[in-house]
Specification:
about 85% helix, mainly alpha, single chain, about 0% strand
Length: about 600
């Protein structure tokens, strides 16, 4: 009785261990199936990505070689460049999405490769994590198996069921475990099939994309071929029209020649018939007229010398018969005089001769027309060849004109770029002038009373500040304003005679001293380095005195230029140490600097906006 609760606790622990072992087995099987599926997917993706990367590398190599040849074409690789250009025309490489040229396409492909490498690294990391997790599960599984074996070693190997119900439960548990195992196996198989289906689907999608790209290429090639076919059909239609036109012209000419030949043949046949009829009539009349005479001639040799009377009688009979025949002929022809009958016979002979002459002339004319026909056919062939040659010449001229147009366009673009650069330079100069005018506004405010007392009552060119800041002002006005401001500054410093500077005697003395020092420095600087600012305001090869406000600026520029040249810095430094300004000059300069700073605070916004 005491061992009963211990046995129950052992059974409960064993059941829990069995459940844990079953769960761990199931997890291990699932993880192994997932691992196999992931490995298969990874192999497929890896193959696909490696193929893509190899294709991209090949394309990048081809493009880089083309770029090298295009940037550095030499005599040795000109042929290769031409071959590459022909290959590029034959095989147009499709650019990726979002790329306008091959450089952008290469950049996009590099980014895609980087993304794929990142995905690959993430996938590797996931696989490593899963492998580590599987190893942990295996360790736990081995630990539990060892624990179970230890428990089984301590307990009995097999404990028979105590009751029928326990036996039924054990059988039910084993049957359910078997069914669970079958379901797990089926589940793993289904997962494996699903993974395979996904792999097949991805491969089919990639094939569909590849086929779609090939279809697009084929459609583009078909369109080009269709355009060429349309052009050739148009040329063929033109050739057919020309052939039909030439056939019509030749048929008309042939019909005209045939009709003229038939008319001549009919006329010749009519003339022959008339000649034969007249000839037959003449022969018949000759036979009738000269039949007795011939008989008389033939009978003379056979006549006897003793029968002279009979001959006379026969001659008379023949004469009478001939006269009768002649009269019949005259009555048949409708002629009364014998001379007219003779003339009629002579006219018939002339008509026969004329007919033979006409026949010969018509035969010669027929031969001439046949030769002319052959010449015209030869000329037609020559014209056809010349038309083709003219078309080729016109094509060459059109190509030359197109080349000239392209050269003019290139020249126009170059000139536009140069004009744009010059405009930028002019705009920068104008901006610098405007900045100088804005900086010189301080002089206008300090010398307002001097501007009121200008010589001859001249009006100053006052331009509103917004126009100056926005730049809506001509360069001539800016130059005039600068000249006026320099003139006013010179008047304020007393460097122009005839006008009071409007300052006290002490200030004038201080300004004269500073001007004298500026003159000395400018003369020495002119001997060493010619400053562009001094050269602009030089009159009669003498340095022009500047206003007191800009004396320090000019001295600073001159010292900077002189110190830049070797061997001249020591003299200038000694002269600056020798020229010590007075107290009034220093006070006035300090006041001017303070006023300028205070005014700049109020004008800071437009100046920065201009920049």
């Amino acid at each position: 009785m005491e061992n009963a609760p211990a046995i129950k606790t052992n059974e409960a622990n064993l059941e829990e261990l069995n459940k844990k072992i079953v769960e761990i087995k199931r997890k291990i099987v699932l993880k192994e199936g997932q691992k196999k599926a992931n490995v298969e997917e990874w192999d497929v993706d890896k193959k696909h990505f490696t193929e893509k990367i190899n294709d991209f590398k090949k394309e990048i190599k081809i493009l880089t070689s083309k770029l090298k040849f295009l940037h550095n074409p030499t005599k040795q690789n000109q042929k290769q460049v031409q071959q590459d250009s022909t290959l590029q025309q034959q095989k147009k490489i499709p650019l990726p999405k979002g790329a306008k040229n091959y450089d952008e396409g290469v950049h996009i492909i590099d980014l895609q490769i980087i993304d794929l490498k990142k995905q690959n690294d993430l996938f590797h990391a996931k696989i490593l994590k899963k492998q580590q997790y599987c190893e942990k599960l295996k360790l736990e599984f081995h630990k539990l198996i060892n624990y179970k074996n230890e428990k089984n070693a301590t307990a009995t190997s097999y404990r028979p069921p105590e009751t029928m119900e326990e036996d039924r439960n054990r059988k039910l548990i084993t049957r359910l475990e078997n069914e669970i195992h079958k379901m797990e196996v089926q589940w793993n198989e289904a997962e494996h099939i699903r993974k395979k289906y996904h792999c097949i689907k991805n491969s089919l999608m990639s094939d569909s994309e590849r086929f779609e790209s090939t279809l697009l290429k084929m459609e583009a090639a078909i369109k080009e071929q269709q355009q060429e076919i349309n052009k050739l059909q148009a040329v063929y239609q033109e050739a057919l029209q020309m052939r039909d036109a030439t056939k019509g012209i030749l048929s008309k000419q042939e019909q005209a020649t045939n009709s003229s030949n038939r008319a001549r043949e009919r006329q010749a046949a009519e003339f022959r018939r008339q000649v034969e009829n007249r000839k037959a009539e003449l022969e018949r009349l000759e036979r009738k007229i000269f039949a007795t005479g011939t008989k008389i001639i033939h009978q003379e040799s056979a006549a006897s010398s003793g029968k002279i009377d009979d001959e006379d009688t026969s001659i008379r009979d023949n004469k009478t018969t001939m006269e009768g025949n002649f009269k019949k002929l005259m009555t048949a022809t409708g002629i009364t005089a014998s001379n007219e009958l003779v003339d009629r016979f002579l006219a018939q002979r002339e008509a026969s001769a004329r007919l033979t002459y006409l026949r010969n002339v018509t035969e010669h004319e027929k031969k001439r027309l046949e030769s002319q026909r052959e010449q015209m056919t030869q000329q037609l062939d020559v014209f056809k060849f010349s038309d083709n040659r003219e078309n080729e010449v016109n094509q060459e001229e059109l190509e030359k004109v197109k080349k000239d147009i392209d050269e003019e366009k290139k020249r126009k673009t170059i000139l536009e770029e140069e004009a744009h650069r010059t405009n930028i330079v002019l705009q920068s100069i104008k901006d610098a002038l405007v900045e100088m005018v804005l900086k010189l506004q301080e002089v206008d405010e300090m010398t307002a009373d001097i501007q009121a007392r200008r010589v001859g009552g001249e009006k100053a060119t006052n331009v509103p500040l917004p126009d100056l800041v926005s730049g809506n002002i001509s360069t001539e006005k800016i130059v005039k304003m600068l000249e006026e401001k320099v003139k006013v500054g010179m008047i304020a410093s007393g460097q122009l005679e005839g006008i009071d500077s409007g300052l006290s005697d002490d200030e004038e003395e201080a300004e004269t001293k500073s001007i004298v020092s500026v003159k000395k420095e400018s003369i020495e600087g002119k001997e060493r380095v010619k400053s562009p600012s001094i050269r602009n305001f030089a009159i009669d090869e003498k340095p022009t005195p500047y206003p007191q406000v800009y004396s320090s600026l000019i001295t600073g520029r001159s010292t900077g230029l002189v110190s830049a040249s070797p061997g001249a810095g020591g003299g200038v430094g000694s002269e600056e140490e020798a020229d010590v300004p007075s107290r009034s000059f220093l006070k006035r300069q300090a006041n001017l600097i303070l006023d300028a700073k205070s005014r700049r605070k109020f004008r800071q916004a437009p100046a920065t906006r201009r920049k």
